[in-house]
Amino acid sequence: MPKARQTKQAKVQEPSVWKGQSYITTAGVTIAACEELFAKADELRQRIALGEAIRVAEGKILALCFLEPSTRTMCSFSAAMQRLGGGVINVTPSDSSIAKGETLQDTIKCLASYADAIVLRHPVKGSTTTAKEAVSKPIISAGDGVGEHPTQALLDLYTIIKEHSPLPDVLHVTFLGDAKNGRTVHSLARLLARYLGQRVKVTYVCPVESLRMPRELYQELSAMGLDQHEESSMDAVLPSTDILYVTRVQKERFDSVEAYNQCKGTFVVNAAAMAKLKASARVLHPLPRVDEIDVAVDTDPRASYFRQMEHGMYVRMALLGLVLGVL
What we know:
The chain is α/β, with parallel strands linked by helices. About 35% of the residues lie in helices and about 15% in strands. The strands form two sheets. The protein has a five-stranded parallel β-sheet.
């Protein structure tokens, strides 16, 4: 009798760790989760470069609830969802019922009845946790006051990997500017500690003592094993820096204009500063900038901040696609 034909069984793909999950903090994000996300971002980047129309999220709706001003993050998420083929609804302070006294919980419950996932930016630290507890739909943080900006951390890490390849044995990241209120600094420091561990060294250079990294966060990162240092001089650390991560001194976080003016313009990355950096170094900035990076630096090939924005769209495409279960 003829032997029965043997058929290969299709390999069952394990569900993504991101599927159906909220993302409001970098705490708990694993190396494997980052690598899965970045691989998807690479894939999407290549597909778009080839002119492919990606329609995997067709029929899905993303609600963007931005209760604090935003250009890059809001537009990036909107572009990401639309490039996946999905739809977007927007809520801003001027058209939100929060202005009429509605609670955040009620606003989020309303949006959850229309959308498959919600991206929230809010001026109060901890608001994304409040939103997450109010609904079962995935909540993605786009920044909560001086707390965290976890998707910015993902795109920052992705940019570092893309722009500084291969990574050195120990990557020296210098955060220049406001470490106290800089939620991008808080999130990226946590993610670097998790992803690179002993392979990263971090230095904070702040214009005044009052803008130092919050002590409780500094201690948390030390407990994670992160090699941290604080310096008052920008020039002293530039020659050894691999990634210069610049942040603006945030006027909106100060109690008075006078206090802000004391810090404003203390550090400026200009041609003289760039001359002290390695040829392999890269300059990142979450933007917007005010006067902390001279516009003349924009043409330097080490200035990565505009490429950083584009990287962010692909990372957010990957995140949305994995959370929604369509990638």
